[in-house]
């Protein structure tokens, strides 16, 4: 895999967000709850499997021969989780303060936009790290795994673009403006993906840490955001089916490739 191909693949998740945001032009209401559960479960399964096979295991393999083999991967994962946790706490504090000066609808809209934009950052980093790993190894299986991950995240981004653009349209914004705001929420993914890719290419010595860091950030998004939100009503059947479908799909791709 060359740099040009990697840069194009970094756009795949962003295209998913844009496609979801475009729903304002042809849908009258947002996706049904059952559909959202399946998509959230599928995305969680893909991201969990990718964290294991595309990030944690390669990180451990790159540390082979070192005296404390698991120290760097463990440190990386903890760093990813802690950073996302701190950022989320700071965001909640800021938006709570903003609610004192703004209307309730402002807070709700801002919370949704900020939450989606925030968790798009580690997703972009994850794709960037996996692509960097594929470029450094030069293997076709690694490249195929990176493409599968980018597609999985793009599928997960479809409803995310919609949950921003659809409420904005319902609140009186124009379809074009709602679409642009929903699309821009995904613009952080290729930006941070490119940044991560370039930094990793400059210093491959930190690749084990970055792989584990991305895994920790991705696991936080799955456990801290996707699954709790989709299962908040206590009905987890469709969520579980979606999760196992995504997980098994990544397993099959890993074995076949």
Task: Describe the structure in brief.
The chain has 257 residues and is an all-alpha fold.
Structure in words:
With 257 residues, the chain is mainly α. The protein has one domain (3-16, 35-82, 124-256). 82% of the residues lie in helices and 0% in strands. The protein has nine helices and no strands. It has helices spanning 3-21, 33-62, 71-99, 104-137, 140-170, 175-184, 188-202, 207-230, 237-256. The radius of gyration is 18 Å and the shape is globular. The chain starts with a helix and ends with a helix.
Provide the structure class: mainly alpha
Number of helices: 9
Task: Pick out the low-confidence regions.
Answer: none
Rg, Å, rounded: 18 Å
Distance between the termini: 15 Å
Q: Residue share in helices?
A: over 70%
What topology emerges from the helices and strands here?
Blueprint lengths: L2 H19 L11 H30 L8 H29 L4 H34 L2 H31 L4 H10 L3 H15 L4 H24 L6 H20 L1
Helix pairs in contact: 1-4, 1-5, 1-6, 1-7, 2-5, 2-8, 2-9, 3-4, 3-8, 4-5, 4-7, 4-8, 5-6, 5-9
